């Protein structure tokens, strides 16, 4: 791969978004005024760019687009609101607030995301302030949930190693707090905070880490606790791998430069695996994360946004350059990485008992969409639950820390609403991104279609006696890869309505990228393509060989070690 072409674009003029950020007076822009404007349900594009930093996107209902165009109406504008909840931990009280807001102001459903957070869809402009106020009153917030900043910090919810989880979770919260924007704009705009006149302050006083331009692009951090790689640590800009020795957390391996997105037809974009570069003691994690992030702040591409992710900053200048820069900024060197082993990146379902004897129930939520009886059942649980909820990186929820004497009561509610994880192992290892009708970038259905496709693939597996097989399967409505499809054993990425690229060969542990197998195919071809592979898998697999390993051994696709070879 010729890297210089991408590198050359670094010297171009700053992109429009760079100007919008710099001139926004630390994320204020004209947001306060446009939110008060009653003429349109939308907001201008410049403000929408800033809105993202506040945790929200302007969207329109794409199911209604053509009809509204015909009627010469403006699009059915509405907002998506994303919460920031490090490690996905929320209290029952917070759950009830999100549930109430979803029904009062959003489309009646709650969406659990692939980064362990909540999204609300369908909020009208006039209800935005009240929604964000109530989220803040519950001690959750939305600042930095989207935008060119560090996003929700992911962390393995791992309830069976309770003491390790508690410590790792504390680090994820500290990382999240330390790397949050410090501007007062959020308070001013949403919480009616007093306007602060910052004229005597330098940009370093106001935003010591981000300065006035913030980052060139979004930035993501996740912490895995082996043997679980549920956070897909190699998809993160910075992945931390907890190293546990003698049942104690001793520190973290550090991995850098992962990412899932690509643009069709542009070989200079590709999904990439983060590379493990060393080990640091636990108390160094904040310093390491900050210094890495500032390298991206200072060297990331501010000219062409599609080349601006950290993975390309590293690939363009080389890992050796990056290590030298990091060690220089730290003033000390990372240690050699320590051994670790991942066994899976999916969730483990049902009840398990933690070391502290509390019980934890992982509930499968198809594609993270909570509505109807699932919503009612979880509300009933939140009303009596004394522990917490943990949103998982696979869009599921753990009803965590249930004392023994309350387990029966929770069980009864789970039974009453049939929240019993009776789905097939294939379905329980599936993720689909939101896509239509709310996502403006969707090229094909995802959340609304994967369940139907799974029923057909389940049938193929059952025909071969493989109905109990766990296979990681993911769908995204476009190549941005919000369901982290490049790490799945089977993946579908939307190309056009009803058409997908099919990828095979990711690993069950999330440590290998998959490879394109069929391009631009619809459901009939998907089933026809998978049928013989599944048949051969049933007949020719070696022992408990995983599907992703099998397709590589048999040469259906070749193995690639790096995103740079993704298109070859
Ligand atoms: Fe994403 C953009 C939904 C996780 C890569 N993502 C979007 C937007 C906001 C569309 C837009 O820009 O207009 C989607 C909103 C859809 C909607 O209607 O709700 C959207 N992304 C999601 C969520 C809700 C998917 C889900 O089904 O759970 C996830 C929210 C996570 C959260 O709570 O913060 C979500 N997005 C991801 C992930 C997975 C992850 O972070 O672990 C990725 C791949 C990892 C990565 O970043 O490389 C991801 N989303 C993208 C990209 C491609 C970025 C790139 O490298 O080019 C975009 C497009 C962009 O940024 O321009 C995008
Ligand atoms: Fe939208 Fe594409 Fe992300 Fe799916 S992968 S939510 S279609 S941006």
Summary keywords:
binds siroheme; 19 helices; five-stranded antiparallel β-sheet; 33% helix; 568 residues; alpha+beta; binds iron/sulfur cluster
> Biggest sheet, open or closed, and with what strands and sense?
5 strands, antiparallel
Number of strands: 20
Could you tell me the radius of gyration in angstroms? Answer: 23 Å
Task: Report the average pLDDT across residues.
Answer: 96
Assembly type: single chain
What is the number of helices?
19
Distance between the ends: 9 Å
Q: Class by helix and strand content?
A: alpha+beta
Bound small-molecule species? siroheme, iron/sulfur cluster
* Helix percentage range: 25-40%
Q: What global shape is seen?
A: globular
Strand line-up in the sheet with most strands:
1-2-5-4-13
Would you identify the regions where 5 or more consecutive residues have pLDDT less than 50? none
Assess the beta-strand content as a share of residues: 15-25%
């Amino acid at each position: 791969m010729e890297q210089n072409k991408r590198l050359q674009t670094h010297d171009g003029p700053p992109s429009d978004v760079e100007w919008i950020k710099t001139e926004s007076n630390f994320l204020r822009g004209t947001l306060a005024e446009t939110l008060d404007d009653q003429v349109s349900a939308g907001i201008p594009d410049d403000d929408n760019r800033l809105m993202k930093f506040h945790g929200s996107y302007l969207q329109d209902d794409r199911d209604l687009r053509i009809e509204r165009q015909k009627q010469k109406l403006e699009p059915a504008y509405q907002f998506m609101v994303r919460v920031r909840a490090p490690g996905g931990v929320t209290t029952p009280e917070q759950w009830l607030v999100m549930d109430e807001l979803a029904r009062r102001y959003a489309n009646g459903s709650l969406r659990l995301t692939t980064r362990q957070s909540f999204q609300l869809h369908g909020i009208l402009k006039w209800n935005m302030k009240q929604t964000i106020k109530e989220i803040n009153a519950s001690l959750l917030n939305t600042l930095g949930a989207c935008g060119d900043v560090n996003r929700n910090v992911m962390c393995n919810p791992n309830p069976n190693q309770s003491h390790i989880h508690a410590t790792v979770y504390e680090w994820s919260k500290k990382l999240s707090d330390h790397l949050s924007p410090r501007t007062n704009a959020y308070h001013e705009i949403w919480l009616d905070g007093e306007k602060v006149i910052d004229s005597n302050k330098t940009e370093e006083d106001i935003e010591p880490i981000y300065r006035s331009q913030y980052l060139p692009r979004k930035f993501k951090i996740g912490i895995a606790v082996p043997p679980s790689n549920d956070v897909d640590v190699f998809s993160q800009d910075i992945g931390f791998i907890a190293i546990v020795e003698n049942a104690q957390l001793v520190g973290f391996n550090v991995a850098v430069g992962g990412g899932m997105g690509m643009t069709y037809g542009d070989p200079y974009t590709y999904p990439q695996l983060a590379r493990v570069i060393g080990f640091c003691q636990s108390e160094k994690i904040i310093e390491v994360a900050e210094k890495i992030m500032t390298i991206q702040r200072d060297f990331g591409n501010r000219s062409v946004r599609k080349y601006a992710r950290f993975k390309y900053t590293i690939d363009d200048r080389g890992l050796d350059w990056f290590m030298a820069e990091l060690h220089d900024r730290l003033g000390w060197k990372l240690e050699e990485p320590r051994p670790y082993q991942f066994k899976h990146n999916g969730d483990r379902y049902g009840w398990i008992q933690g070391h502290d004897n509390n019980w934890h129930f992982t509930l499968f939520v198809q594609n993270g969409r909570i509505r109807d009886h699932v919503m009612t059942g979880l509300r009933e649980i939140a009303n009596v639950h004394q522990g917490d909820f943990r949103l998982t990186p696979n869009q599921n929820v753990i009803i965590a820390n249930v004392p023994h004497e309350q387990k029966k009561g929770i069980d009864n509610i789970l039974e009453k609403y049939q929240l019993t994880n009776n789905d097939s192992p294939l379905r329980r290892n599936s993720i689909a991104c939101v896509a239509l009708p709310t996502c403006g970038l969707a090229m094909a259905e995802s959340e609304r279609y994967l369940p139907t496709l799974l029923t057909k693939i389940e049938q193929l597996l059952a025909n071969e006696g493989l109905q109990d097989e766990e296979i990681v399967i993911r769908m995204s409505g476009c190549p941005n890869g919000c369901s982290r499809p490049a790490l799945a054993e089977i993946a579908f990425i939307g190309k056009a309505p009803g058409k997908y690229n099919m990828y095979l060969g990711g690993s069950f542990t999330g440590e290998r990228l998959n490879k394109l197998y069929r391009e631009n195919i619809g459901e009939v071809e998907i089933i026809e393509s998978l049928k013989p592979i599944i048949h051969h898998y049933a007949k020719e697999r070696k022992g408990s060989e995983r599907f992703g390993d099998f397709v590589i051994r048999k040469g259906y696709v070749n193995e690639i070690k790096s995103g740079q070879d993704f298109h070859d």
